[in-house]
Design goal:
Elements: H1 3-6, E1 14-15, H2 16-23, E2 26-28, E3 34-35, E4 37-38, E5 48-51, E6 68-71, E7 83-85, H3 89-100, E8 109-110, E9 115-116, E10 121-122, E11 127-128, E12 133-134, E13 139-140, E14 145-146, E15 151-152, E16 157-158, E17 163-164, E18 169-170, E19 175-176, E20 181-182, E21 187-190, E22 195-198, E23 201-204, E24 211-213, E25 218-219, E26 224-226, E27 233-235, E28 240-241, E29 246-247, E30 252-253, E31 258-259, E32 264-265, E33 270-271, E34 276-277, E35 282-283, E36 288-289, E37 293-295, E38 300-301, E39 309-311, H4 320-331, H5 333-349
Parallel strand pairs: 4-5, 5-6, 6-7, 8-11, 9-12, 10-13, 11-14, 12-15, 13-16, 14-17, 15-18, 16-19, 17-20, 18-21, 19-24, 20-25, 21-26, 24-27, 25-28, 26-29, 27-30, 28-31, 29-32, 30-33, 31-34, 32-35, 33-36, 34-37, 35-38, 37-39
Antiparallel strand pairs: 1-3, 2-7, 22-23
Amino acid sequence: MALSDVLPDEDPTLTLGELATLVGGELKGDPLTRVTGLGTLERATPSQISFLANPRYRAQLSTTQAAAVLMKPEDAVGFEGQAVLLANPYLAFAQLTHRFDRTPRPAVGVHASAVIARSARLGEGVRIGPQVVIGEDVVIGARVIIESGSVIHDRVHVGDDCVIRSRVVIHHDCQLGQRVSIQSGAVIGGDGFGFAPARGAWHKIAQIGAVILHDDVDIGVNTTIDRGALEDTVIHTGAIIDNQVQIAHNVVIGAHTAIAACCGIAGSTRIGAHCVLAGGVGVVGHIEICDRVQITGMSMITKSITEPGSYSSGTAFDSTDNWKKMAVRLRRLDELAQRVRALEDATDQS
């Protein structure tokens, strides 16, 4: 495979004028300056563009070597270097990362080692990498990328412009909308944890639902999303799910919700739209979380949340000695509460 087959098709080099037009900003500087990449304010070279989104890094403007800086107009006051002025420099930076992204990708077409069922249908411009397996009656949309070693089981539907990285497994009957991104090692549609207890033994329940990923969903490395037991597990439009997240059967996650690494969500839970679950959050099953809820890291959610806002659980870290003292006091809270109640009763009777 030639180098030209695995690198992005476009030359990423831009002039500042082209770049400003691309992100919809106002240029302060020479429009013919060439930009070859991105860098931080501290480490950018004279051919790279940087950005200022956090005021804490403003002091670095005086020493940056960047060709230009993406920034808000108010932050450009007193800055003598070249700049692209716009309301949201961090969003512009995010857009430019795609222009300068050099992630390898398979050549257009199907690699000779891929195994494709005769009944599978492939859209125009697909890129199917080495040792990919695609099952019966699978539908793959236009311009889809499926990297090496991924397995797409029977009757899966993959929408246009999806990217499926190496070693992803998508089980039967699952559906992906358009522009879905699934990172390496993720498993979509594995069996949910369903068993019926009887006479001291566990009897497996066949999981006959599927997983539905709507448009623009992003799934991280080694994340697992279980298929539904009867109805489907559903992840709605624009939701982003980080690495090593476990989503159990029949969970529904609302549009544009963000779930950080190592969260665990038990079965039949419903999470609303525009929520944020920080790292390591645990959610018990069969509860509902309304729209626009933020849950801080390592919290354990044990009942439904019906009002938008920020929620936390657990105790903050401290030195080990102080934490042990606090733990002892927590164990005595019930005893202390009973003593206070007794004192109150005695006071009322006197």
